[in-house]
Amino acid sequence: MCGGNSMRLRFMLRCKNNLHAVLRCIYTVGNPQNAGRFRSYYGVKTMISNIDDVQKAGRENMGRALESFGAFSRGWQTLASETAGFSRQAFEEGAAHFEKLLGAKSIDVAFEAQTDYLRSSYEKAVGQAARFGELYLDLVKDAAKPFEGVVPAVGRTVGK
Hints:
This protein is mainly α. It has a domain at 61-150. The protein is built from six helices and no strands. Helix 1 runs antiparallel to helix 2 and helix 4 (41-102) runs antiparallel to helix 5. The two termini are 32 Å apart.
């Protein structure tokens, strides 16, 4: 059944410049009556299996993406609450420092209070920056965690 078609294809490959053979092959392949000759049970079964694999991969990747988005959401909520807490604390300390400056009896006491406030503010800001760095790192790690197994799995599939 397919023997004639395979012979035609071999003939076409042997005679690359033969226009007649090319047109005959196109006619044979494009003819609806001959279409059944080019299908095989195993080809259809493989195609369906591949479609199932694609659907399965799509479901898995959608689950990974949703898990990653959830990690991003939790990370941003943590960063937002940390930022709000730091801002509130900085505002309260700034207000207390301003009251202390208003109550200063001499310029030396005011300069000393200002120096202490700036030093402590700087130390807290550096500590908070380090804390934010840790939070951002945790956010990225948590968001990437669902995709950790994907790259080795792809390597095993491609290697087959």
